[in-house]
Amino acid sequence: MRTAARLSSAPRWGAVLAALLALGLAACGTTTVASSPASHRTTPPASSPPTSASTSTSPGTSTSAAPPSSSSLPPVTAVTPTTARPVVDLRPLAAPHALAPFGGPLVAGEGAWKPAGRLVQGMSAVYETSLVPPGGSAPSGIAWMDTRLLSARLYSGSLSPGGGPYRFTAPVEPAQAASLVAAFNGGFMMPAAEGGYFTEGRVVVPLVNGAASLVIYADGSTDIGAFGSDVRMSPAVVAVRQNLVLLVANGRPTAAAVSPNWEAWGATCGATSCAASVPGIEYQWRSGLGVTADGALVYVSGPSLAPLQLAELLARAGAVRAMELDINPDWPVFASYDPPSPNGLASPANGSKLVASSVQGPWTFFEPSWARDFVTMSAR
């Protein structure tokens, strides 16, 4: 771009030609194009997408210059960059349909979705509801997330997966809090996960073929599946979090989920204690994450859940493939954030729990002491 000093030293006729050029560009409607996910680009990207070894740009830090104006005449002055989030033309997924209860005594509001968290360009990106699982009595929370409006990021902890330091770790910093809509827990500690962990350009724990995997791509999109078949490593992958095997496949609980061997789905606490000397119980706090046919993410968490019940809830919420995340009372948590202003900072004060009785809450991801991995969902 020409600088003001360079234009001012040009002959008088050069300034006239520059003015005519500026007017011509404005008349042709020349504009800048904000960066958007690859799946929603309407023009070719300016450069190749980052590979798994590159560092992606944090939400809320992109800038774009204003288009030329017909009233702008030389000399040209520099444009001051803005820190506001660029406006991206987003096409949301269809909102989720009401879920049919499994039967038994109805709980008020069961299966009816309500919007949660901040709006993204005036649109709801997260919906929440609850369902009582088959044979259960306590409602479990269900959250639906629009992955066209939201971008995922994996945060890593000093205990899970370990092996830091990491660029993205608790607490969530203000730059990311400016676009944060929701966050939820990750999986088991790695020795118990029976899978691997890849993030920030490196393999922290070797990935395992066949393991249930949450995959995050450079554009913030996601997928869930068995590694090596449903999902694979590629240059576009920036994070992989594995945990056990799939709980749901082809929209139905897997054979492993139906199996009476519930111990295969993780060591649980006892009814009143998590001491190692106390036998674990099948019906315990559990959480899981699934992907729907149109690419939405669905999260489920609740008390007194057997693995099969968790699978049935995920499938009822529309998951075609799903995996178990962390279990036991201290770890499952889903929080949404609704700051009072559109670009306000998410914080514990404007956050809400999905399940009121969960031990953790919206403050969890803002605590420097939180040492486990988690996933954030931020406005694109």
What does this entry look like structurally?
This protein has 380 residues and is an alpha+beta fold. Helices cover 11% and strands 26% of the residues. It has a domain at 114-265 and 272-379. The strands form three sheets. The protein has an eight-stranded antiparallel sheet. A five-stranded antiparallel sheet has the order 4-18-5-16-17, with no helix packed on it. The two termini are 29 Å apart.
Number of helices: 6
The radius of gyration computed from the alpha-carbon positions, rounded to a whole number of angstroms, is: 24 Å
Q: What would you call the structural class?
A: alpha+beta
Helix share bin: 10-25%
- Which segments are poorly predicted (pLDDT under 50) over 5 or more consecutive residues? 1-86
User: How would you characterize the largest beta sheet?
Assistant: 8 strands, antiparallel
- SSE order, as H and E? HHEEEEHEHEEEEEEEHEEHEEEE
**Strands in their spatial order, largest beta sheet:** 1-2-3-14-13-15-11-12
Mean pLDDT: 83
N- and C-termini, Cα separation: 29 Å
Amount of beta strand: 25-35%
- How many strands in all? 18
* Oligomeric category: single chain
Inertia-based shape? globular
